[in-house]
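Milestone 3.1: sequence recovery, worked example.
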């Protein structure tokens, strides 16, 4: 190292202790293995860039500058280096004199540029991945601030958590090459609102778009064959109806749970009908927890132009799968539900225009009325009023005490006045 560079830092044994305040950059020699925490936070982080001749020292730099220059000639890439280059504040990575790795536009690749290894976390704006890249590595874009990305037609693989926590990413152009979306690839891409998959996509792996909490519109491609467990477990409160393509052979659990409805253009075959029931009916404690203190709930399927509501818990999944293959029986779905879940499916089916649930609602009017009041579903209460024989305490309270329910109170009073029910207050 040149003498003037030596004067820009103070070493104590194997540890870098301090940096000359006037230095704009430093080259850390290979004998330095550690960086003092105070030096890293208050001095090294303020440099324009730092050159490292042994990448292992990166593990000790907790507060790096905006640019990292790597002149280590070894085959150094591993999960620890990946983590170190993912630290906040890094905007650019440059690699020189290495026969295994290279860099372009601040992003790290293998030397043949067939695999993208790391995009700095502070990188912003639009990224166009060069043609020829076949793989995006594990956590390559994790926590980055990129806003949009274009994949090359050469791309064949998206690695585990490749884009996890890209909280600015709002647009993805998948190109015409990639056929499979990798496991947890886009988890927590929280500003992504629209997703349109290109025609060549065949499989979406587990948790690929989990916790994309603002995902509103999903357009699945014809040709898609498999959606794995939790791929679209988005927890989005505003997801529109999702249309499943005819080509889909497998739909795993925990997908599109918050969608307004799931649409199929044709009556499902036996195997797929069984999947729908297995995946969209809950069981036991899980169902009860999901229902706790909240609204009425059932999965809405739109099949060949007709609507059916799947109760969250059913008494016989085989019978429910068989019902899905017979549209003339869709109004009976509530009958296979269990307890309060049958109530929910009955009300929703009646709201959709089915007459079959009327007798059930009349027989369970107190229970259903209490449930609807607890959930604040006053439109459903008004629709079901002609079927209620008895007025419950909760209905009376909704009528007499809650000023927000003037329409409900008006309907109740009208029904009592015209003696349309057996209400006794």
């Amino acid at each position: 190292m040149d003498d003037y560079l030596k004067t820009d830092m103070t070493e104590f044994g194997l540890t870098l202790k301090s940096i000359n305040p006037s230095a704009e950059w430093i080259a850390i020699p290979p004998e330095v293995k550690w960086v003092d925490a105070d030096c890293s936070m208050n001095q090294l982080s303020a440099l324009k860039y730092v050159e490292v001749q042994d990448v292992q020292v990166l593990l000790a730099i907790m507060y790096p500058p905006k640019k990292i220059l790597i002149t280590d000639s070894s085959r150094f890439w591993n999960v620890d280096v990946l983590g170190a280059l993912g630290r906040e504040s890094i905007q650019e990575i440059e690699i020189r004199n290495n026969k295994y790795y290279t860099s372009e536009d601040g992003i790290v690749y293998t030397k043949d540029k067939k695999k993208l290894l790391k995009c700095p976390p502070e990188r912003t704006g639009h990224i166009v991945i060069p043609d020829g890249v076949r793989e995006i590595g594990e956590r390559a874009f994790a926590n980055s601030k990129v806003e949009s990305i274009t994949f090359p037609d050469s791309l064949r693989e998206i690695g585990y958590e490749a884009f996890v926590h890209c909280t600015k990413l709002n647009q993805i152009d998948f190109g015409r090459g990639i056929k499979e979306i990798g496991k947890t690839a886009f988890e927590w891409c929280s500003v992504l609102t629209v997703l349109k998959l290109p025609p060549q996509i065949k499989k979406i792996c587990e948790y690929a778009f989990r916790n994309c909490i603002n995902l509103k519109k999903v357009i699945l491609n014809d040709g898609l064959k498999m959606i794995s467990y939790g791929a679209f477990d988005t927890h989005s409160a505003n997801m529109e109806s999702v249309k499943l393509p005819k080509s889909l052979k497998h739909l795993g659990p925990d997908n599109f749970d918050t969608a307004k409805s799931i649409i199929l253009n044709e009556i499902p075959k036996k195997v797929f009908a069984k999947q729908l029931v297995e995946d969209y009916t809950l069981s036991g404690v899980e169902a009860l927890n999901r229902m706790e203190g909240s609204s009425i709930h059932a999965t809405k399927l739109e099949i060949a132009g007709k609507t059916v509501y799947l109760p969250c818990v059913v008494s016989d999944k085989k019978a429910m799968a068989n019902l899905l293959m017979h549209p003339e029986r869709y109004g009976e779905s509530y009958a296979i539900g269990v307890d309060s879940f049958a109530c929910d499916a009955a009300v929703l089916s009646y709201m959709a225009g089915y007459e079959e649930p009327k007798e059930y609602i009349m027989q369970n009017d107190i229970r259903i009325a209490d449930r609807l009041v607890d959930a604040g579903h006053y439109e459903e209460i008004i629709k079901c009023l002609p079927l209620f024989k008895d007025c419950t305490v909760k209905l009376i309270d909704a009528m007499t005490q809650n000023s927000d329910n003037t329409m409900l109170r008006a309907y109740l009073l009208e029904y009592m006045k015209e003696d349309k029910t057996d209400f006794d207050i």
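DSSP finds twelve helices and 25 strands in the chain. The mean pLDDT is 89.
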